[in-house]
Amino acid sequence: MSLWTSLEPASATVDPGGSTTVRLRLRNTGDVVDEYRFEAVGSLAPWTTVEPQSLRLYPGTTGSVELTFAPPRTPDATAGPNPYAVRITPTEHPEATTVPEGNLTITPFTEVRAELVPSTVKGRFRGRPKLAVDNVGNTKVTASVSGSDNGDQLSYDIRPSNVQIEPGRAAFVETTLKPRQIIWFGSAEQRPYTLAVQRSGVTPLDVEGTYVQRGFLPRWLAVCLSVSMALAITFVMLWIGYKPQVRSAATEQLQEAGVSNLPPLPSPTAEAPKAPSADIPAPPAAAGTQQPGGAGAEAGPEAGPEEGSGAGAGGGGSEEQEAEAPERTAATAVQRLAAKDPTGRHICYRVFTAGQGWSDVACDGDTAGTVGGGSPITAVNTASSGTKGTSSGAYIHNPASTDGAGQYRDPWQNAADGIDVHVGSTEKDAPHMLGFALSVDGGAGTVCHTSYVHNDTWLGLACDEPGAGLAFTYVGTHDNDLWIEAIKLTV
Predict the structure, then answer these.
(1) Pairing status of strand 202-213 against strand 120-123
(2) Is 269 helix (H, G, I), strand (E, B) or coil?
(3) Same domain for 369 and 412?
(4) pLDDT tens digits, residue range 35-74?
(5) What's the farthest any 2 CA atoms get from each other in the chain?
(6) Which of 108, 127, 256, 309 could form a disulfide with 79 if both were Cys (CB 3.0 to 4.6 A apart)?
(7) C-beta of residue 38 within 8 angstroms of C-beta of residue 77
(8) Looking at the structure, do residues 92 and 29 belong to the same domain, yes or no?
(9) End-to-end CA distance of the chain
(10) Is residue 127 domain-resident?
(11) Contact (Cβ atoms closer than 8 angstroms) between residue 285 and residue 303
Protein backbone atom coordinates (compact mmCIF):
# COMPACT_ATOMS: atom_id res chain seq x y z
CA MET A 1 0.00 0.00 0.00
CA SER A 2 1.22 3.48 -0.87
CA LEU A 3 -0.16 6.92 -0.16
CA TRP A 4 0.81 10.43 -1.30
CA THR A 5 0.12 13.39 1.07
CA SER A 6 0.57 17.17 0.95
CA LEU A 7 -0.13 19.96 3.53
CA GLU A 8 -1.22 23.26 1.96
CA PRO A 9 0.32 25.39 3.36
CA ALA A 10 3.01 23.49 5.27
CA SER A 11 3.46 26.46 7.64
CA ALA A 12 0.62 28.64 8.96
CA THR A 13 0.13 31.44 11.49
CA VAL A 14 -2.74 31.95 13.95
CA ASP A 15 -3.62 34.45 16.69
CA PRO A 16 -4.54 33.11 20.15
CA GLY A 17 -8.34 33.15 20.41
CA GLY A 18 -8.68 32.96 16.60
CA SER A 19 -8.50 30.11 14.10
CA THR A 20 -6.86 29.10 10.82
CA THR A 21 -7.32 26.22 8.36
CA VAL A 22 -4.77 24.00 6.60
CA ARG A 23 -5.76 21.61 3.73
CA LEU A 24 -4.37 18.06 3.74
CA ARG A 25 -4.42 16.46 0.27
CA LEU A 26 -3.83 12.73 -0.23
CA ARG A 27 -3.88 10.27 -3.19
CA ASN A 28 -4.39 6.52 -3.10
CA THR A 29 -1.46 5.30 -5.19
CA GLY A 30 -2.25 1.65 -4.43
CA ASP A 31 -4.31 -0.85 -6.38
CA VAL A 32 -7.17 -1.43 -3.89
CA VAL A 33 -9.99 0.72 -2.54
CA ASP A 34 -9.11 1.90 0.98
CA GLU A 35 -10.61 4.04 3.72
CA TYR A 36 -8.35 6.36 5.71
CA ARG A 37 -8.90 7.61 9.30
CA PHE A 38 -7.35 10.89 10.48
CA GLU A 39 -6.19 11.81 13.99
CA ALA A 40 -4.34 15.00 15.13
CA VAL A 41 -1.31 14.30 17.34
CA GLY A 42 1.18 16.47 19.20
CA SER A 43 0.87 19.42 21.59
CA LEU A 44 -1.66 21.18 19.32
CA ALA A 45 -4.01 18.19 19.14
CA PRO A 46 -6.49 19.54 21.79
CA TRP A 47 -7.02 22.63 19.62
CA THR A 48 -7.15 20.84 16.24
CA THR A 49 -10.28 19.69 14.40
CA VAL A 50 -10.13 17.35 11.36
CA GLU A 51 -13.06 17.35 8.90
CA PRO A 52 -13.95 14.78 7.70
CA GLN A 53 -12.48 12.29 10.17
CA SER A 54 -12.36 9.51 7.54
CA LEU A 55 -12.09 9.40 3.74
CA ARG A 56 -12.60 6.55 1.22
CA LEU A 57 -10.52 6.63 -1.94
CA TYR A 58 -10.37 4.46 -5.06
CA PRO A 59 -6.98 3.62 -6.57
CA GLY A 60 -5.48 6.64 -8.28
CA THR A 61 -8.03 9.12 -6.88
CA THR A 62 -7.28 12.19 -4.75
CA GLY A 63 -9.15 13.60 -1.76
CA SER A 64 -8.63 16.28 0.89
CA VAL A 65 -9.49 17.06 4.52
CA GLU A 66 -9.32 20.36 6.44
CA LEU A 67 -7.35 20.87 9.64
CA THR A 68 -8.73 23.76 11.74
CA PHE A 69 -6.48 25.16 14.50
CA ALA A 70 -8.11 27.29 17.26
CA PRO A 71 -5.62 27.90 20.12
CA PRO A 72 -7.17 29.68 23.15
CA ARG A 73 -6.05 33.10 24.39
CA THR A 74 -4.32 31.65 27.43
CA PRO A 75 -0.70 31.11 28.53
CA ASP A 76 -1.01 27.48 27.35
CA ALA A 77 -0.87 28.66 23.73
CA THR A 78 2.91 29.07 23.63
CA ALA A 79 4.04 31.85 21.32
CA GLY A 80 6.27 30.95 18.38
CA PRO A 81 6.52 27.96 16.02
CA ASN A 82 4.72 24.81 17.19
CA PRO A 83 5.05 21.55 15.22
CA TYR A 84 1.95 19.41 14.60
CA ALA A 85 1.18 16.14 12.88
CA VAL A 86 -1.75 14.10 11.54
CA ARG A 87 -1.81 10.29 11.85
CA ILE A 88 -3.38 8.63 8.76
CA THR A 89 -4.38 5.00 9.35
CA PRO A 90 -5.56 2.87 6.35
CA THR A 91 -8.41 0.47 7.12
CA GLU A 92 -7.12 -2.27 4.82
CA HIS A 93 -3.49 -1.99 5.98
CA PRO A 94 -3.51 -0.47 9.52
CA GLU A 95 0.15 -1.25 9.97
CA ALA A 96 1.07 1.15 7.13
CA THR A 97 0.41 4.36 9.05
CA THR A 98 1.50 7.72 7.59
CA VAL A 99 2.16 10.82 9.73
CA PRO A 100 2.60 14.06 7.72
CA GLU A 101 4.00 16.95 9.76
CA GLY A 102 3.57 20.73 9.57
CA ASN A 103 4.34 23.88 11.54
CA LEU A 104 1.93 26.36 13.14
CA THR A 105 3.20 29.73 14.42
CA ILE A 106 1.16 31.20 17.30
CA THR A 107 1.46 34.97 17.55
CA PRO A 108 2.47 36.44 20.94
CA PHE A 109 0.16 38.46 23.16
CA THR A 110 0.68 40.07 26.56
CA GLU A 111 -1.80 40.55 29.36
CA VAL A 112 -0.88 41.48 32.92
CA ARG A 113 -3.13 41.60 35.97
CA ALA A 114 -2.22 42.96 39.40
CA GLU A 115 -3.90 42.86 42.81
CA LEU A 116 -3.04 44.28 46.23
CA VAL A 117 -3.26 41.86 49.15
CA PRO A 118 -4.78 43.32 51.23
CA SER A 119 -6.05 46.46 49.54
CA THR A 120 -6.26 48.30 52.90
CA VAL A 121 -3.49 48.12 55.52
CA LYS A 122 -3.37 49.75 58.94
CA GLY A 123 -0.44 50.82 61.11
CA ARG A 124 1.16 53.57 63.17
CA PHE A 125 4.64 53.56 61.64
CA ARG A 126 4.41 51.29 58.57
CA GLY A 127 2.21 49.06 56.45
CA ARG A 128 3.21 45.96 54.51
CA PRO A 129 0.86 45.17 51.58
CA LYS A 130 1.81 42.67 48.87
CA LEU A 131 1.31 43.17 45.15
CA ALA A 132 0.51 40.02 43.16
CA VAL A 133 1.40 40.44 39.45
CA ASP A 134 -0.01 37.72 37.15
CA ASN A 135 1.21 37.11 33.59
CA VAL A 136 -1.80 35.69 31.73
CA GLY A 137 -0.19 36.20 28.32
CA ASN A 138 1.89 33.69 26.35
CA THR A 139 5.24 35.54 26.45
CA LYS A 140 7.66 36.49 29.24
CA VAL A 141 6.90 39.86 30.85
CA THR A 142 9.46 42.27 32.32
CA ALA A 143 8.02 45.05 34.49
CA SER A 144 9.00 47.54 37.17
CA VAL A 145 6.91 48.58 40.18
CA SER A 146 6.77 52.09 41.69
CA GLY A 147 4.55 53.85 44.22
CA SER A 148 2.98 57.31 44.45
CA ASP A 149 0.34 59.24 46.37
CA ASN A 150 -1.17 62.70 46.50
CA GLY A 151 0.84 65.11 48.66
CA ASP A 152 3.91 62.85 48.93
CA GLN A 153 2.75 61.65 52.36
CA LEU A 154 4.27 58.16 52.13
CA SER A 155 7.63 56.64 51.29
CA TYR A 156 7.89 53.29 49.49
CA ASP A 157 10.28 50.38 49.92
CA ILE A 158 9.52 47.90 47.09
CA ARG A 159 11.26 44.50 46.91
CA PRO A 160 11.89 43.55 44.16
CA SER A 161 11.31 46.67 42.11
CA ASN A 162 11.79 44.77 38.82
CA VAL A 163 10.24 41.39 38.00
CA GLN A 164 10.40 38.90 35.13
CA ILE A 165 7.36 36.64 34.91
CA GLU A 166 7.01 33.55 32.74
CA PRO A 167 3.68 32.90 30.96
CA GLY A 168 1.03 31.61 33.32
CA ARG A 169 3.07 32.52 36.43
CA ALA A 170 2.78 35.18 39.11
CA ALA A 171 5.27 37.29 41.06
CA PHE A 172 4.77 38.71 44.56
CA VAL A 173 6.22 42.14 45.29
CA GLU A 174 6.60 43.06 48.97
CA THR A 175 5.97 46.73 49.71
CA THR A 176 6.66 48.66 52.92
CA LEU A 177 4.76 51.94 53.31
CA LYS A 178 6.12 54.49 55.81
CA PRO A 179 4.35 57.78 56.66
CA ARG A 180 6.60 60.83 56.49
CA GLN A 181 4.91 62.37 59.57
CA ILE A 182 3.78 60.56 62.72
CA ILE A 183 0.31 61.23 64.17
CA TRP A 184 0.98 61.54 67.90
CA PHE A 185 -2.61 62.17 69.02
CA GLY A 186 -5.98 61.96 67.35
CA SER A 187 -7.97 59.61 65.15
CA ALA A 188 -6.68 57.55 62.24
CA GLU A 189 -6.27 59.11 58.78
CA GLN A 190 -6.69 57.42 55.41
CA ARG A 191 -3.87 57.90 52.90
CA PRO A 192 -4.71 56.58 49.39
CA TYR A 193 -1.76 55.44 47.28
CA THR A 194 -1.10 53.83 43.91
CA LEU A 195 1.34 51.10 42.85
CA ALA A 196 2.11 51.25 39.12
CA VAL A 197 3.23 48.18 37.12
CA GLN A 198 5.22 49.66 34.22
CA ARG A 199 6.25 47.86 31.01
CA SER A 200 8.19 49.26 28.09
CA GLY A 201 5.94 50.87 25.49
CA VAL A 202 2.72 50.07 27.39
CA THR A 203 0.50 52.29 29.54
CA PRO A 204 1.27 51.59 33.25
CA LEU A 205 -1.17 49.35 35.12
CA ASP A 206 -2.24 51.23 38.27
CA VAL A 207 -3.40 49.39 41.39
CA GLU A 208 -4.95 51.57 44.09
CA GLY A 209 -4.82 50.90 47.81
CA THR A 210 -5.36 52.66 51.13
CA TYR A 211 -3.02 53.03 54.10
CA VAL A 212 -4.85 53.83 57.35
CA GLN A 213 -2.39 55.64 59.62
CA ARG A 214 -3.26 55.35 63.29
CA GLY A 215 -2.30 57.85 66.01
CA PHE A 216 0.63 57.01 68.29
CA LEU A 217 -1.61 57.51 71.34
CA PRO A 218 -5.37 56.95 71.12
CA ARG A 219 -7.72 59.89 71.61
CA TRP A 220 -9.09 58.63 74.94
CA LEU A 221 -5.59 58.34 76.40
CA ALA A 222 -4.74 61.90 75.32
CA VAL A 223 -7.94 63.15 77.01
CA CYS A 224 -7.09 61.25 80.21
CA LEU A 225 -3.56 62.70 80.30
CA SER A 226 -4.91 66.23 79.76
CA VAL A 227 -7.50 65.86 82.53
CA SER A 228 -4.91 64.35 84.91
CA MET A 229 -2.49 67.22 84.22
CA ALA A 230 -5.21 69.83 84.84
CA LEU A 231 -6.23 68.16 88.12
CA ALA A 232 -2.60 68.03 89.30
CA ILE A 233 -2.07 71.74 88.56
CA THR A 234 -5.32 72.65 90.35
CA PHE A 235 -4.33 70.63 93.41
CA VAL A 236 -0.91 72.32 93.64
CA MET A 237 -2.46 75.79 93.33
CA LEU A 238 -5.01 75.02 96.03
CA TRP A 239 -2.29 73.68 98.33
CA ILE A 240 -0.19 76.80 97.88
CA GLY A 241 -3.18 79.13 98.46
CA TYR A 242 -4.60 77.33 101.50
CA LYS A 243 -1.50 75.85 103.16
CA PRO A 244 -2.27 75.41 106.98
CA GLN A 245 -0.24 77.52 109.44
CA VAL A 246 1.27 75.41 112.27
CA ARG A 247 1.93 77.28 115.54
CA SER A 248 2.70 76.29 119.17
CA ALA A 249 -0.46 76.86 121.22
CA ALA A 250 1.38 76.11 124.50
CA THR A 251 3.84 78.98 124.04
CA GLU A 252 1.05 81.42 123.30
CA GLN A 253 -0.88 80.36 126.45
CA LEU A 254 2.20 80.83 128.67
CA GLN A 255 2.77 84.27 127.24
CA GLU A 256 -0.84 85.20 127.94
CA ALA A 257 -0.49 83.97 131.58
CA GLY A 258 2.48 86.30 132.18
CA VAL A 259 5.12 83.62 132.38
CA SER A 260 8.02 85.08 130.50
CA ASN A 261 11.10 83.39 132.08
CA LEU A 262 11.09 79.68 132.55
CA PRO A 263 13.82 77.92 134.56
CA PRO A 264 16.32 76.08 132.42
CA LEU A 265 15.93 72.36 132.11
CA PRO A 266 18.59 70.21 133.78
CA SER A 267 21.30 69.00 131.40
CA PRO A 268 21.53 65.26 130.95
CA THR A 269 24.43 63.51 132.69
CA ALA A 270 26.93 61.47 130.73
CA GLU A 271 26.02 57.85 131.09
CA ALA A 272 27.24 54.63 129.48
CA PRO A 273 24.85 53.31 126.85
CA LYS A 274 22.77 50.35 127.89
CA ALA A 275 23.09 46.96 126.23
CA PRO A 276 20.00 45.86 124.30
CA SER A 277 17.60 43.76 126.32
CA ALA A 278 17.47 40.07 125.60
CA ASP A 279 13.67 40.20 125.67
CA ILE A 280 13.40 42.34 122.51
CA PRO A 281 12.54 40.02 119.57
CA ALA A 282 14.60 40.12 116.38
CA PRO A 283 12.86 41.67 113.36
CA PRO A 284 11.28 39.12 110.94
CA ALA A 285 13.15 38.25 107.73
CA ALA A 286 11.87 39.68 104.42
CA ALA A 287 9.60 37.40 102.39
CA GLY A 288 11.49 35.30 99.88
CA THR A 289 14.94 35.97 101.49
CA GLN A 290 16.80 33.08 103.05
CA GLN A 291 18.49 33.87 106.41
CA PRO A 292 21.85 32.44 107.41
CA GLY A 293 21.43 29.00 108.81
CA GLY A 294 18.53 28.01 106.50
CA ALA A 295 14.92 29.00 106.21
CA GLY A 296 13.84 25.98 108.23
CA ALA A 297 15.98 26.99 111.22
CA GLU A 298 14.39 30.47 111.48
CA ALA A 299 10.78 29.52 110.78
CA GLY A 300 10.33 27.51 113.94
CA PRO A 301 7.29 25.48 114.89
CA GLU A 302 5.03 28.56 114.83
CA ALA A 303 5.37 29.01 111.02
CA GLY A 304 2.04 27.79 109.63
CA PRO A 305 1.50 26.16 106.26
CA GLU A 306 0.24 29.40 104.76
CA GLU A 307 3.33 31.37 105.78
CA GLY A 308 5.70 28.61 104.70
CA SER A 309 4.13 28.16 101.26
CA GLY A 310 3.16 31.76 100.35
CA ALA A 311 6.53 32.89 99.04
CA GLY A 312 7.14 29.67 97.13
CA ALA A 313 3.76 29.80 95.43
CA GLY A 314 4.20 33.44 94.51
CA GLY A 315 7.75 32.97 93.22
CA GLY A 316 6.99 29.94 91.03
CA GLY A 317 3.64 30.99 89.60
CA SER A 318 5.01 32.91 86.62
CA GLU A 319 7.40 30.08 85.73
CA GLU A 320 4.54 27.56 85.73
CA GLN A 321 2.45 29.88 83.56
CA GLU A 322 5.34 30.28 81.09
CA ALA A 323 5.89 26.51 81.03
CA GLU A 324 2.20 25.91 80.34
CA ALA A 325 1.91 28.63 77.65
CA PRO A 326 0.81 26.95 74.38
CA GLU A 327 3.34 26.71 71.57
CA ARG A 328 2.54 29.01 68.60
CA THR A 329 2.20 26.61 65.68
CA ALA A 330 1.00 27.07 62.12
CA ALA A 331 -2.52 26.07 63.20
CA THR A 332 -2.77 28.75 65.93
CA ALA A 333 -1.62 31.40 63.45
CA VAL A 334 -3.99 30.36 60.65
CA GLN A 335 -6.90 30.16 63.08
CA ARG A 336 -6.36 33.84 63.93
CA LEU A 337 -6.32 34.74 60.22
CA ALA A 338 -9.49 32.70 59.67
CA ALA A 339 -11.21 34.52 62.54
CA LYS A 340 -10.41 37.89 60.93
CA ASP A 341 -11.19 36.74 57.35
CA PRO A 342 -13.66 33.80 57.51
CA THR A 343 -14.25 33.69 53.74
CA GLY A 344 -10.60 34.00 52.67
CA ARG A 345 -7.93 31.37 51.92
CA HIS A 346 -4.81 31.39 54.08
CA ILE A 347 -1.81 29.15 54.75
CA CYS A 348 0.68 29.44 57.62
CA TYR A 349 3.91 27.49 58.08
CA ARG A 350 7.16 27.19 60.02
CA VAL A 351 10.33 25.14 59.59
CA PHE A 352 12.61 23.21 61.96
CA THR A 353 16.26 24.00 61.22
CA ALA A 354 19.07 21.78 62.53
CA GLY A 355 20.80 23.46 65.47
CA GLN A 356 18.24 26.31 65.64
CA GLY A 357 14.86 24.72 66.32
CA TRP A 358 11.49 25.93 65.09
CA SER A 359 11.32 29.25 63.24
CA ASP A 360 8.68 31.90 63.75
CA VAL A 361 5.39 31.19 62.00
CA ALA A 362 5.05 32.82 58.54
CA CYS A 363 1.84 33.19 56.53
CA ASP A 364 0.69 33.89 52.97
CA GLY A 365 4.01 34.35 51.17
CA ASP A 366 6.28 35.47 54.05
CA THR A 367 9.67 33.79 54.50
CA ALA A 368 10.13 30.93 56.96
CA GLY A 369 13.70 29.74 57.52
CA THR A 370 17.26 31.12 57.23
CA VAL A 371 18.40 32.21 53.77
CA GLY A 372 22.05 31.46 53.01
CA GLY A 373 22.83 30.19 56.52
CA GLY A 374 23.73 26.72 55.34
CA SER A 375 21.57 25.01 57.99
CA PRO A 376 19.22 22.37 56.52
CA ILE A 377 15.52 22.06 57.27
CA THR A 378 14.55 18.72 58.83
CA ALA A 379 10.82 19.28 59.48
CA VAL A 380 7.96 21.48 58.22
CA ASN A 381 4.70 22.41 59.99
CA THR A 382 1.80 23.68 57.82
CA ALA A 383 -1.87 24.53 58.34
CA SER A 384 -4.44 26.20 56.10
CA SER A 385 -7.92 27.72 56.18
CA GLY A 386 -10.55 27.95 53.45
CA THR A 387 -8.91 25.06 51.51
CA LYS A 388 -10.81 22.00 52.83
CA GLY A 389 -7.63 20.68 54.44
CA THR A 390 -3.91 20.15 53.77
CA SER A 391 -1.87 17.07 52.76
CA SER A 392 1.92 16.81 52.76
CA GLY A 393 4.81 14.37 52.56
CA ALA A 394 8.55 14.85 53.26
CA TYR A 395 11.23 14.05 50.64
CA ILE A 396 14.46 13.45 52.64
CA HIS A 397 18.14 12.69 52.13
CA ASN A 398 18.86 9.05 51.21
CA PRO A 399 22.35 7.96 52.36
CA ALA A 400 22.06 4.76 50.32
CA SER A 401 21.10 6.52 47.08
CA THR A 402 22.77 5.30 43.90
CA ASP A 403 21.06 7.66 41.44
CA GLY A 404 21.51 10.98 43.28
CA ALA A 405 17.84 11.17 44.40
CA GLY A 406 16.27 11.27 47.85
CA GLN A 407 13.36 9.23 49.20
CA TYR A 408 9.83 9.42 50.60
CA ARG A 409 10.18 7.42 53.80
CA ASP A 410 7.17 8.41 55.93
CA PRO A 411 3.49 8.22 54.88
CA TRP A 412 1.58 11.34 53.83
CA GLN A 413 0.02 13.44 56.57
CA ASN A 414 -3.51 14.83 56.17
CA ALA A 415 -5.48 17.34 58.26
CA ALA A 416 -8.61 19.46 57.99
CA ASP A 417 -8.68 23.27 57.95
CA GLY A 418 -7.03 24.87 60.99
CA ILE A 419 -5.20 21.65 62.02
CA ASP A 420 -1.40 21.21 62.07
CA VAL A 421 0.38 18.94 59.58
CA HIS A 422 3.95 17.93 60.54
CA VAL A 423 6.32 16.22 58.10
CA GLY A 424 9.97 15.37 58.58
CA SER A 425 11.67 14.92 61.96
CA THR A 426 12.91 17.16 64.79
CA GLU A 427 15.12 14.49 66.35
CA LYS A 428 18.85 14.93 66.67
CA ASP A 429 20.77 13.81 63.55
CA ALA A 430 17.48 13.70 61.59
CA PRO A 431 18.01 13.56 57.79
CA HIS A 432 17.71 16.92 56.07
CA MET A 433 14.80 17.58 53.74
CA LEU A 434 15.38 17.99 50.00
CA GLY A 435 11.79 19.21 49.75
CA PHE A 436 8.18 18.19 50.38
CA ALA A 437 4.99 17.57 48.44
CA LEU A 438 1.97 19.73 49.26
CA SER A 439 -1.72 19.59 48.30
CA VAL A 440 -4.86 21.55 49.25
CA ASP A 441 -8.58 21.01 48.44
CA GLY A 442 -7.84 17.32 47.83
CA GLY A 443 -5.71 18.20 44.80
CA ALA A 444 -8.38 20.48 43.29
CA GLY A 445 -7.14 23.74 44.83
CA THR A 446 -4.30 26.04 43.89
CA VAL A 447 -1.16 26.33 46.02
CA CYS A 448 1.93 28.30 44.96
CA HIS A 449 5.44 28.13 46.40
CA THR A 450 9.09 29.08 46.12
CA SER A 451 12.05 27.77 48.11
CA TYR A 452 15.69 28.65 48.76
CA VAL A 453 18.05 25.76 47.98
CA HIS A 454 21.49 25.49 49.63
CA ASN A 455 24.32 27.07 47.59
CA ASP A 456 21.75 28.26 45.06
CA THR A 457 19.08 30.93 45.10
CA TRP A 458 15.31 31.30 45.34
CA LEU A 459 13.62 28.97 42.88
CA GLY A 460 11.00 30.47 40.57
CA LEU A 461 7.43 30.69 41.77
CA ALA A 462 5.50 27.52 40.87
CA CYS A 463 1.87 26.48 41.31
CA ASP A 464 -0.05 23.25 40.90
CA GLU A 465 -2.48 22.87 38.02
CA PRO A 466 -5.97 21.90 39.24
CA GLY A 467 -7.83 19.84 36.69
CA ALA A 468 -4.66 18.95 34.74
CA GLY A 469 -4.16 15.58 36.47
CA LEU A 470 -1.74 16.86 39.14
CA ALA A 471 -2.86 16.09 42.72
CA PHE A 472 -0.02 17.99 44.41
CA THR A 473 2.90 20.38 43.92
CA TYR A 474 6.50 19.86 45.01
CA VAL A 475 8.53 22.39 47.04
CA GLY A 476 12.35 22.09 46.87
CA THR A 477 14.95 20.02 44.99
CA HIS A 478 15.41 16.33 44.16
CA ASP A 479 19.25 16.45 44.37
CA ASN A 480 20.39 14.15 47.18
CA ASP A 481 23.42 16.41 47.88
CA LEU A 482 21.34 19.60 48.46
CA TRP A 483 18.62 20.74 50.85
CA ILE A 484 16.13 23.57 51.40
CA GLU A 485 16.84 26.42 53.84
CA ALA A 486 13.73 28.62 53.51
CA ILE A 487 10.23 28.52 51.96
CA LYS A 488 7.33 30.80 50.92
CA LEU A 489 3.77 29.45 50.42
CA THR A 490 0.48 30.96 49.21
CA VAL A 491 -2.99 29.57 48.44
Answers:
(1) parallel
(2) coil
(3) yes
(4) 999 999 999 999 999 999 999 999 999 999 999 999 999 9
(5) 164
(6) 108
(7) no
(8) yes
(9) 57
(10) yes
(11) no
